[in-house]
Amino acid sequence: MKAIDNWFKRHRNPTSFWLHMVGIPACFVAAPAALLLKQWWTALALFVGGYALQFLGHLVEGNRSGEEMLLRRLLGRRK
User: Fold this and answer.
1) Which letter, b or e, does each residue of 55-72 get, where b requires 16 or more Cβ atoms within 10 Å of its Cβ?
2) If 50 and its partner were Cys, which of 11, 18, 23, 65 is the partner (CB 3.0–4.6 Å)?
């Protein structure tokens, strides 16, 4: 539950929260959409659009995305 609590702490802004509530499912739907619809561009649009909404949410929130924090940690850059 610590991960869930951390997620909610990092997504307190209502705009950021709802951008994630739309963006996360869009990313998850991308792979099944590619397989079922056989239209790679639809899946790509869902995936890229979903991630774009989430990154926009982090801009609104004023914090880093989990992906950026992971990359910084792997590269040894904390700040």
Assistant:
1) bebbeebebebeeeeeee
2) 23
pLDDT confidence of residue 70? 86
- Phi/psi at 48 (5° precision): -65, -45
Q: What is the mean pLDDT of residues 60-76?
A: 89
Q: What are phi and psi of 12, to 5 degrees?
A: -85, -30
E-strand stretches of 2-52: none
Tell me the pTM: 0.81
Which residues 6+ apart lie within 8 Å of 10 measured at CB?
61, 63
Taking the C-alpha atoms of residue 14 and residue 61, their distance in angstroms, rounded to an integer, is 9
Q: CA–CA separation, 63 vs 68, rounded Å? A: 10
Average pLDDT over residues 48-53: 95
